[in-house]
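ARCHIVE ENTRY
Sequence with per-residue tokens
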Amino acid sequence: MAGIVAAVAGGLLAPWLGAAPLTIKGPAAGLIVICLGAVHDLGGGDAQAGYRAALAATAVGGLLQMLGARLRAHRMADLVPRTVVKGFLAGIGWVVLGRQLLILLGRPVSGLTPMQSWMVLPEVLASPNPFTTLTGAVCLIILLGWPRAAGKRARWIPAPLLVLLAGPALAWLAVSWPETGEWLRFQPGMLLALPDNPLDSLARPSIAGVNPWIFARYVLLIAVIGAIETLLITRAMELMDPQRRRFDLDRDLFATGTVNVASALLGGLPVISEAVRGGAGVQAGARGRGANFFHGLFVAALVVLSPGLIRMLPLSALAALIALVCWRLAAPLEGWKIIRGHWDQAVPYLTTLVLTLAVDVLAGIAGGIAIKLAIMSGRHGAAAWRRPRVDASRGRNTLTIRAQGPVIFWNCRALLHAMEQGLNQATPLELDLTTAALDRSTRERLQELMAHAPPGSVIRWPSSPRPSLEGERR
């Protein structure tokens, strides 16, 4: 129920607080382990007291995120290479996919790490539960087959909606026809659980009797990890945007912090920009903040108006839906292209992916950044750690920005800031990089910014003194 509260709060509040388009705010899968640790450490054996203290830590962490947004914390997102972003998104996809496959096969095992989920999968495949496997298979067939069979009609009757109808229908079939035998039997725990009175199951924040040092530690963990994941996922959603818009990451982080405060006060889990839900929205054709709002609205409506339908929804139907989204988020073909490409892209990508699977998202991001920094230091020496020289001069009709020396993900902030200032002035830009050395992440980020520049803007790349063409900038 705490997760439902977080999803509703994120959907109904964030769009009006300036959340970035396409992002969907919901319970943070990456923070669940931290929340469980907070409940255990802050409660001292009392789960209820620990949960109330964890809610208080979430509320204070949300306030710190709001403060960080005012201090322009979005600059942290520019310090993460693109290959690391792709690696941690793929890692999230594989982490969630492994758990959903166990649920789809009817053998969910609690307490497993992501790697252990994949390790026990062969054993589960040898003895799946027939009912859940059949339900999951039917739902996967609907998800893959309906868009092709329905054509344009699939836009008005999306496949996920059919899955949410087909799942309860199969459950009703198994309940209503005893003669179906054991092959279509399901046990308790295979259907979505919902309390009889959801509001009575919610708690309120409290820090009575809590160790202040342990409390402060979990406040920082929730605030910092939630902010990092939100910034990086929002930047990743910016890359997925078909309209190639620039997202205000600080405003989005402020909205996330505000929602975290509201969610905690109502008894909900911490909230971030959710990669799986956001990716599902883009795949379904989402274009603006309405995806987030209607996500929260429909979750609230289902809980209030159709609790019986929710209790008849097999977990394997939801697992099939989430598994397909996670497969697309993992993007194995794109990952294979990165691995087969240049080694300085493949090594950070694989490091981030493996550490995300083996440890957690934060370890994956930190490991990927460390490896990329080591590669850049080996290539450019101490210059990779120094701030590049960036000069801006205004001509008659253009603003010329010149950069000298190595400009990589770690030290590109000065150049990006100069470009953002130029874009705000609505003046054609001439970006002179003929004496600069760029890494791929910085090059791609500059191309994205130049796509928003006024007509007549050009880039002079290090490899060629001639101005870039419009196609090169895209």
User: Anything to note?
Assistant: Residues 330-379 form one domain.
